[in-house]
Amino acid sequence: MIEQKGQVRDQKPQRNSKHVNILHTKIQLLQLYHPNVDRSGDLCIPILCFDNWKPATTLGDILTSVLLILGEPDLSRAIRIEIADEFVNSDTTAQLSKPRLVPGE
To answer: Catalytic site residues?
Structure first.
């Protein structure tokens, strides 16, 4: 086991510094309102299922699948049933077909 020791200084970077001070960086995570994405951000896409996985699957294949499922929800594999029901029963289907971010659900 390797043990590393160091010191983190809490100071603002100088104006001409090329480094970003991570301590002062704020990140806000938002949840995706989508029937195939659960509250923790996990996706339900067939290419990642154990039965469908192939050693020849590339990162490009996975990213393409992610983009396709976000653009065209697969209601037969919905993780969030309430959103899938809303998608089917709503008059605003066009609005729901576009993924959107919802803060702090």
So the answer is: 44
